Each structure stands twice: as C-alpha cells, then as structure tokens.
Amino acid sequence: METLMRLILECLYCLLALCACGFFVFMIYTDIKKDQRDEEMDRRREKREEEYHRKRMESIQK
Questions:
Q1: What does the pLDDT profile of the chain (62 residues) look like in tens digits?
Q2: What's the confidence (pLDDT) of residue 62?
Q3: What is the Cα–Cα distance from 37 to 24, expressed in whole angstroms?
Q4: CA 20 to chain CA centroid, nearest Å
C-alpha cells in the first residue's frame, strides 16, 4: 500500500513538472508571437508614414 501511494505521489510530481514546463513554453511562445506582431505593426506604420510623406511632398511640389 505504501509503495502504491509513493508511486501515485511520484506521478503527481511528474504531472506538476510537466504543467510547469508547459506553462513556461506557452509564455515563451506568446512572447515570440507578440514580438512578431509588434514588428509587423512597425513595418505597417513605417509604410503608412512613407506613403503619407510621399503624398505630402507631391502636393507641395505641385
């Protein structure tokens, strides 16, 4: 009976460790995705700013 309880306890420890590892992997994944999203937003903003500047320069030159 005691060995069964120790086996169950060890299984619970393993599950806890797996959950903790999964949590850290999830946090890293979301951080990477956030960085990718931020980079894409920066590229789009720069493109809009360049377009705005180009149109403004065209209107000034006319």
A1: 999 999 999 999 999 999 999 999 999 999 999 999 999 999 999 999 999 999 888 888 76
A2: 64
A3: 20
A4: 18
Residue with the two structure tokens 């009976």? 1
Q: Which residue has the tokens 């120790």?
A: 6
Kindly compute the dihedral angle of the four CA atoms of residues 46, 49, 50, 55, in this order, to the nearest 10 degrees.
160
Residue with tokens 């850290």: 24
The whole-angstrom separation of Cα 34 and Cα 40 is 10
How is residue 47 written in tokens?
Answer: 């493109």
Name the CA dihedral angle for 22, 28, 32, 33, rounded to a multiple of 10 degrees: 40
